[in-house]
Amino acid sequence: MTGVSDERGRLRADLVIEYPFTRTTGPVVGAFMTGLRDGRIVGSRRTDGRVFVPAAEVDPETGDAITEIVEVGSTGVIETWTWVDPPRPGSPWEEPHGLALVRLDGADTPMLHGVLVESADDMATGMRVEAVWKAERVGHITDLKGFVPEGTGQAENSAEGTERAVDGTDETVRSIRTPIRLEYDFIPSAAAQEYLHAYADKRILGNRSPVDGAVFVPPRGVDPRHGVAATEMVELAHTGHVGNFCVTHLPIPGRDDLPTPYVSAWIHLDGADIGFLGLVAGCDLDDVRIGMRVRAVWKPDEDLGATAENVLHWEPTGEPDVPVDRAGNRAWRDSAPGEVVEDA
Amino acid sequence: MREVAVVSSAVHQVEALTFTTDVQLMVPLINQARDLVGLSQDDIGFTCSGSSDFLAGQGFSFVQTLDAVGAFPPIAESHVEMDGAFALYEAWVKLQIGEVDTALVYSYGKSSPGSRRDVLAVQLDPYAMAPLWPDAHSVAALQARRLLESGGVTVEELAGIAVRSQRNAVGNPNALRASADVTVDDVMADAVVADPLRAADLAAEADGGCAVVLAAGNRARELCDRPAWIRGIDHRVDAHGLGVRDLTRSPSAALAAARAADQAGFEADAADVAELHASSTAQVHLLTGELSLGDDVRIDPSGGSLAGDTLMAAGLVRIAEAARQVASGDADRALAHASSGPCLQQNLVCLLEGE
């Protein structure tokens, strides 16, 4: 996530989520994918003789398993269509294109795919089309480039060759990769904006509950125990104690800046009633313990920004520990909210 | 069957909740719905919510949203990764069991941080469809063209549905698209955005949320003047694949309506008003037929989901709007419809009645 602020100082960040799925196909969908790799389209025949394309494993009306695989034509007819302009992010097409349900010759159900023509004026329900293929095929729905008007695809297909799989394998396709990528424009809430901006001034803010005065950090604009808005901000000390911790020995992919082993801990700031996450450093791993007093180690002033990353880590203060039975969250216990533990 | 009623509701829909988190959205709505009937969370027997992690871009995001309820000490709670109408169904079942007398149902959706039409492609068959990233507008267009070319409806009639929605939405603070004087010609003059659909044919995307309080029997009568009794509620589902369905029909909508009518003792057509959850004017047309709604039924008095469509909440909003029609006395009987999945795959019908 990369954060920036706009001309009014509002923070925002690109949030990209990727799901690198590898999906098992099973024998029926595998046959469909294998067919695509080999430049053929296959369906599955249900007990009443009708043929599903793409091959389906189960009859949605009866729930019966369908196992008979049949090849259908690579030509067919458009049953319904729309025009996609601009092409959608993540789609296999880079130019405006048709999108249609195409019923192939020999099939009883239509399949979805692109129609590669110049404009919506070239699209029509009832239009005959034929498949055009990629030269390099791996057993994936995008091995099929799409459909073009019947009689116009031959040149492209013969140029690219559809006789056999390019990788030369005859093995059945058993899995496919279907990565999903979703992009979000992440904008922190008003409370989080204030919290992050305060970091630039080396201040750590929390929210005070209007019900019982408990202090929450980071501030989220609500008291979650009572389900009420919390708008009062309070500035917190840069000292606290370790409420709990974990030593991590396995590296996190993409976090080369975080050499292992490292200690992540719930830091309970003096004056706060819940902990928040931080790194503990500046001492031996074996010395880290619940109740250990710590203070913030900040980035050099010239490197400060509106980010919680300003606190590089938390280091021991050398003060006496908070007793273990008094360490950790207080907002969710009976002890008085806002109580300063170091006075105990 | 145990008598269960909608006794209060709160709705908020806007174009984008830019600086408001899901929690901050729901705190006032949940409090408003509870306050209207004088209940605190301690008085609520069961809480159920509906939302989607894909919209939040965050796994198990609904757990965080429980902060808005005040879920401490721990409450009896459940969640569905569906529209809140289906969460309401779960709460209704819980009330039928008889262990609790009150329930809080809420749902919310903040789709503006992402590209909603593209996020929705992820709900399609992951092998042969989703990798092509057919966006929601395109999928709606494929269905609309089938309806138009099957001869059941014309583009002018679809524009008429858009006009009805926009005119009805005037005065609804939660409508994003409202106009007292829009005409069919105005709609027809709009550019086509997903051939054959125009912008006004597609539901207006909203961020928002909804909270509803349910109560059983005399508890409902104590809590409000005119409970909107759920006389019948049912939901049914069609096959997932678009290719194996007749996109001009929605058998699950018709069946859900028939089952709800059996429970209620009156048909969908006997409703004074109907609030429909559709993503296009073509779907409103299709549903009007499947639910056998005649000319006497006022369709979408709030503007319906066409006027403001919060993903994951629009169905629950339909129930809230239908219940308001009953509570105010504007209707004696009301139908609320909710849907889920591509091209009206899953449908819920709720028949409400005053007494």
Terminal Cα span of chain A: 40 Å
Assign the structural class of chain A, choosing from mainly alpha, mainly beta, alpha/beta, alpha+beta, or little secondary structure: mainly beta
CA radius of gyration of chain B is 19 Å
User: What is the helix tally of chain A?
Assistant: 3
Shape of chain B: globular
Indicate the mean pLDDT of chain A.
Answer: 89
Q: Architecture of the largest domain in chain A in CATH?
A: Beta Barrel
What class do helices, strands and sheet pairing of chain B give?
alpha/beta
Following the backbone from N to C, one meets helices and strands of chain A in this order, namely: EEHEEEEEEEEHEHEEEEEEEEEE
CATH class of the domain at 4-115 and 205-223 in chain B: Alpha Beta
Mind explaining what this structure looks like?
The complex is a heterodimer of chains A (344) and B (355). Chain A has 344 residues and is mainly beta. Chain A has two domains: 21-180, OB fold (Dihydrolipoamide Acetyltransferase, E2P) (Beta Barrel), CATH 2.40.50; 190-343, no CATH class. Chain A is 9% helix and 37% strand. Chain A is built from three helices and 21 strands. Chain A has helices at 26-37, 154-160, 190-200, and strands at residues 2-5, 11-24, 41-45, 51-52, 68-72, 75-84, 97-104, 111-115, 128-133, 144-149, 175-186, 204-208, 215-216, 222-223, 228-229, 233-236, 239-248, 262-269, 276-280, 293-298, 311-316. Chain A has a five-stranded antiparallel beta sheet with strand order 8-7-6-9-10. In chain A, strand 1 and strand 2 (11-24) form a beta hairpin. The longest helix of chain B has 15 residues, at 22-36. In chain B, strands 1, 2, 3, 4, 7, 8, 9, 10, 11, 12 and 13 form an eleven-stranded mixed beta sheet that branches. Chain B is built from 13 helices and 13 strands. Chain B has a domain at 4-115 and 205-223: 3-Layer(aba) Sandwich (Peroxisomal Thiolase, Chain A, domain 1), CATH 3.40.47.10. In chain B, helix 6 (136-149) packs across helix 11 (281-290). Chain B has helices at 22-36, 53-56, 61-65, 84-97, 116-119, 136-149, 155-168, 184-189, 217-223, 251-264, 281-290, 304-307, 314-327, and strands at 4-14, 46-50, 77-80, 102-109, 192-194, 197-198, 205-216, 228-237, 273-275, 298-299, 309-310, 333-340, 346-353. Chain B is globular and about 55 Å long. The two termini of chain B are 17 Å apart.
